[in-house]
Amino acid sequence: MSPLELLKVNVNDHTEKKNGLTYLSWAWAWQEAIKADPKAEWQVKMFGPNYDQPYCKIGDTAMVFVEVSMFDKTLCCQLPVLDHRNKAIPNPDAFQVNTAIMRCLAKCIAMHGLGLYIYAGEDLPEGDAVDATNYVKQIEESKNVEELKTSFKSAFAALQRMPDALALVNAAKDKRKSELAA
Fold it and tell me: 66 with 76: CB under 8 angstroms?
């Protein structure tokens, strides 16, 4: 697998929403990372006088840094230690730092391609939008109700786990159905 192929992986079944933001499960992301590149590695950058702190102090708050190596390329991401409202936590405890590290791991894996669309504020990975567009076009070009049913059935089967893509297909089906009835 390559970074370009990772960009096309739909991760929506492995995310959760909190306060309007989408989070990808770090465990699932790491599992997919090592499937894509069995040589993948990650590490937490350490700070402090003895390099024994897994965070960098910024005033009374903290920032974590994670490096992920995949496809012979190492990328580094940073993330503040945040509370449930996405506000920096003053004097974070070990659990809060650990949570930030694991979120940062998922973010850094995304920099290699997996789930990157989440950080762009999009609901579908690259490729899914193209798939939906192709199904919409097929529906719009249906010559009769039977052809429309067949086109919609195949679109539904392919896109049933992608609500946004399915909404586009459904709208196209309804429009074409009314055009064919006229």
Answer: yes
List the domain boundaries for the chain.
Answer: 3-119, 128-181
Half-sphere exposure of 137 (CA within 13 A, CB side): 6
Say what the pTM is: 0.68
Q: pLDDT 10s digit of each residue in the chain, 182 long?
A: 877 888 888 888 888 887 777 889 999 999 999 999 999 999 999 998 888 999 999 999 999 999 999 999 999 999 999 998 889 999 999 999 999 999 999 999 999 999 888 877 655 565 555 467 778 888 899 999 999 999 888 888 777 666 667 777 888 898 899 899 88
**What is the spatial distance between Cα 138 and Cα 9, in angstroms, rounded to a whole number?**
23
CATH for the 3-119 domain, from 2.60.120, 3.30.390, 1.20.1260, 1.10.10: 3.30.390
